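hey all, quick one before standup. I had two proteins in the batch that finished overnight and I want to keep them in one place so we stop losing track of which output belongs to which input. First protein below, input sequence then structure tokens straight from the run.
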Amino acid sequence: MFCLNRWVLVSTVFVFTCGGLTVGKSEKLSYGEFFKSNRYEKACELDFEKFAAKHQPPQHLRNAIERNKEKIRSTGFGEVKGMPGFIVKHFDANRVINADRMEECIKRFNLDRLAVAKKYIAKVDGQWMVFAEMIKPDSSKKYDSTSLEFVQQLAKLAEETGYRDWQGNWLFNKEGKLTCIDSENDSFAIGRSRLEDGKTPQHCKTQYVLSLAIFGGSIDPEARQWLQDKINALRKSPEGVAEHTKNTPDTILPWSKKFDGPNINISNVKQHLEKLREESYGMRQGILSESMAFART
């Protein structure tokens, strides 16, 4: 696809979401025509297929899903008997997208004391669902998340992603890494610990790191002092108080693309997810209408 003077050159064989050669007969479409065309829908579908393939469950989980389909449908959200080690989380693929982005952030900044619970997507009787790894610490070991090293790594993660939903959502895994178990979009919403001074934007690095103040006196004195100094430094810096929106490079993870890989267009994935949601809603409405019509006969 070539983007020239508000026109899009589209191949009838392949559709690319960035610059590159096309193969086959081409035609010129405006941006509006392209995004309304079935070619755009196909591009979104192909990216979703790649996304689903990347996050397909391991074989033992696929076997467990097949054996427990009825229990999974009736549970919807939570633990399912017969599937130890995993939790069903409806079909909110944003949890998977955000987990991917958090993993990349952890890798990029070498936050080696942190981890993210694995998440997979799979179809259950034609309906997509999310399955999350259940994190259980080794009860024979003692863990401490209040040290300076942990607080520094959590602060860096917060600064880069806007994560703010700390309480109850981070557990130690068996390797001793502090692991995020909740990566839904709401985990990046405005937290309870924040500045309300009328000057500091709600979405900025200062507010993100300040969310860690919810731990208060439970962290080591050295870590507490470091965190206070970090927040004060951010408050005084242009970068720390720069407002983040959906259109700024630095922003909360659900809006950000800076941790996305090159092979899957996540914007296309989200567009296809929206289509699936609309189709699912339409199907439910159709079933409801049929049931009401039957009841009246």
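OK second protein, same deal, sequence then tokens:
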Amino acid sequence: MRRTMTVVAALGIGAVALSACAREVSGSPVTDEPAAGTVSITGSGTPITPAKLSTVTCAPLASTIALPACDTPSATAKPIPDGATITLRAGDPLRFAGGNAGMGTPSGSDRICTIGLFVTDGTDTWALSGSSCAGRKPGGTNKVSGSVAVNDGATTVDGYTVGTTTAILMSPTGVSDGPGGLWTVPAVKLSKSVRAVSDISGVTTPTAGTAVTVRGASSDIGGLTAMPPKGATWEGEGTKPVLHPGDQGAPVVAGGKLYGLVSGQPSIALPVTPADKIVSALPQLGPNVRLLTK
């Protein structure tokens, strides 16, 4: 029996022209800039492969709204050893320290969301993730026109510190201008021992029938096709696709280009924070911050 789920994902994304963007960069500093805008790391370090999400127990959030982030018992953060490097890609999970009232994470727990994209100013690099991991410290500003410094560390699932959440990107308008109009995204400034590798070439407006894939922390979820201007549809045998706990922030990709970040669990709709809205908020990190592309 065929079952169909219509996904209203608000993927009306305007094409964005991007140039001189990098394929892979270190968090800080960039040490070599070859031709064609590609930025790479000189030298080498002992690679550390971060643990997968399946190595920890991660409980779905207790909420009346299905949010595919999850909470796991707190772990002690540890530095990346001298001379070692960790490579991160969109779709990898990040652990955010718990006990933060703004995140609503219980004391003694950390929250896990997924990396959706990387941005860079050519010197520093940030990983952007799910909104349920966008905590605010008590007394922090709620102004939507700027960023919020939280200064909390972010780690791999197995506890290696990869950077610090230096800002919360917010909707520049601060008004509900349709799906994806109000949102927050944590920006993790990556350390010099982290290599961010991007395999997207930009953002684009989807065309009807374009194949869409969610790159989740546990596995990719396919079978979705774009249905502009509302989002995407799913058709297939058996049960509808279900995101896994920890998948909030996962990139929604089609044809090698980013449509947006997953913000909720699909039922009759797949909530997505559109990529063009996130790109419009990048000046909150600095005047020259741009999408990191391959």
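Flagging for whoever picks this up: Residues 251 and 294 are 15 Å apart (CA to CA). The helical segments are 275-280.
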